[in-house]
Structure formats: structure tokens, C-alpha cells
């Protein structure tokens, strides 16, 4: 029985009007060379998905290990600490108000990660305690965390069974 061999062919960057979140599309082409005629379609799809997934993981690790990304990450967090978190905590101590520290740190984390990933500041974190407002998409963060944890820790056979029994 023959195997599918994957070869990675890098191509020069091409100008494109398409903006995509998929860096792999713009950086390299992956070509699968079919040498086995006995593989069915599901096996081929599974192997292709695994190949793309592992390539994405490799690309992600290459990006986060770069010194320039580490410097950018550190500078972004430092700016947010100096311009947002410390002034907010100083204002809270001057006013003598009580705050939920978990909520404050969730807002800080959300703003920081959102700024790093998307290059946009959602401004969930004001400079003054009196300007602290309720933000709906910030409330969805714990729900998303729970879904991700549930998805990764519950065995595949159990969620398939729950789906079959229509249990959510």
C-alpha cells in the first residue's frame, strides 16, 4: 500500500487584493502527491486536514518565536499597563471605590489580546472608575472559554453520543 506524500513548495509573495486571516495561503502552497489509489475520500480529506493543521501550528510557532513579535507583545502590554491599568487603579484608590479585580483583569486581558491580534483597541477599560460600563461581548468570554475547555477535555465519543441524544 502506498502513502500520500506531502511536499511544501514555497512561492514568492504575490500582490493580491484579497486580505485573509490565513497566512498559509499567502506564504506557501502545499501540494499533495497522490501515490495510492486505494485511499477513500474520507481518508484523503482527513490527511489533508491534518497536513494543513500541522502547517498552521508550525507557522504559528514560527511567528510567536520571532524576536520582533516578542518585542511587539512586550511593548503593547507595557503601554496598556502604563496608559490603562495603572491610571485606573490610581483613580479607584483616590476615590476609595471597591472594584471586582477579576473583572478589571478580564477587561485588561481582553483589550490587550484584542489589540495584539486585531490591531484595534476595543476600549473596554476606561481610565476612570466612573466611566466603567457594561460590555456585552466581554460577558461572552467565559462562555467561550468553557466551550473550548469542554471541547478539548471531553472525549470525542462522548460528544458524538450527546449529539445523537440531542443533549447540548
TrEMBL record:
Q: Which InterPro entries would you find in this protein's record? A: Cyt_P450_sf
Tell me the SUPFAM superfamilies matching this sequence: Cytochrome P450
Q: Where is the signal peptide?
A: none
Q: Which GO terms describe its molecular function?
A: heme binding; iron ion binding; monooxygenase activity; oxidoreductase activity, acting on paired donors, with incorporation or reduction of molecular oxygen
PANTHER family for this protein: VACUOLAR ATP SYNTHASE CATALYTIC SUBUNIT-RELATED / V-ATPASE-RELATED / VACUOLAR PROTON PUMP-LIKE PROTEIN, VACUOLAR ATP SYNTHASE CATALYTIC SUBUNIT-RELATED _ V-ATPASE-RELATED _ VACUOLAR PROTON PUMP-LIKE PROTEIN
What name does this protein carry?
A: Cytochrome P450 family 96 protein, putative
Organism, by scientific name, is Medicago truncatula (Barrel medic)
